[in-house]
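Good morning,

Attaching, inline, the backbone tokens for the sequence recovery test we're adding to the shared suite. The designed sequence is right after.
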């Protein structure tokens, strides 16, 4: 167990980033991650965040899906993207409302093994996102989002769970 890894081991506070864990025994390896905030005047809060396997990254031309996003008068959603293959990737995110209609988009360029965080990235009314790796990309990516309750500061993580856990939609 490595508590407060970013601050305690790397001497940095309030940063984003990623850690690579490698093993020759992947089936016997277990990794979990949490995000905690103990300095907010409203109190302490946190959530587990998804841990991804790089071999499950979205290939060029492929798609990933995030559902359960929010942006309304009481909440917003932050978006996190991670390049996993050591190459450049360009990710287009299309946001959809409850009727499945397009409500906005954004494009993010990821450097090799780079991570991007977009605070309050989801347009008002969007509840889902389709993330597409540009066909001309050479990298792969994985993504998750954290809807945030603005009154309490509490947040939770959403991911493309079938992709993260390695199962198909059938």
């Amino acid at each position: 167990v490595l508590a407060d890894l970013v601050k305690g081991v790397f001497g940095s506070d309030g940063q984003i980033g990623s850690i690579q864990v490698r093993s020759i025994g992947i089936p016997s390896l277990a990794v979990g991650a949490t995000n905690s905030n103990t300095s907010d005047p409203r109190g302490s809060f946190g959530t587990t965040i998804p841990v991804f396997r790089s071999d499950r990254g979205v290939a060029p031309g492929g798609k990933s899906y995030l559902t359960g996003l929010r942006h309304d008068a009481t909440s917003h959603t932050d978006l996190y993207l991670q390049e996993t293959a050591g190459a450049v990737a360009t990710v287009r995110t299309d946001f959809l409302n409850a009727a499945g209609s397009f409500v906005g988009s954004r494009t993010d360029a990821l450097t090799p093994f780079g991570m991007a965080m977009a605070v309050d990235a989801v347009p008002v009314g969007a509840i889902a996102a389709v993330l597409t790796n540009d066909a001309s990309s050479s990298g792969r990516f994985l993504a998750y989002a954290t809807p945030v309750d603005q009154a309490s500061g509490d947040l939770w993580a959403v991911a493309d769970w079938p992709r993260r856990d390695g199962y198909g939609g059938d």
